[in-house]
Amino acid sequence: MLRIPTILFVSLVVAPIPILWYIDYRLQDFRRDPSDPLWGFRGLRPDQYTDEGQDWLRRSWLVLVLLIPWWVLVALILGKGQ
Known about the structure:
This protein is mainly alpha-helical. It contains three helices and no strands. It has one domain (4-81).
């Protein structure tokens, strides 16, 4: 049986992922070579995007940099009750 803290924990851990999906969706419009699939770190390189897409790329890096501390914070606060 799922408890409320478990549901809250999973919700807070998964919450930033749709933000990344939206940023990646917007970033696809600015790719230099749309036919080349960008996976992993290669998709986060500035030379893969036009100048107009650099703002979206910086937003993506910001979310990725803040994602690990967010997960650690959620685990420290809510993980003790698990």
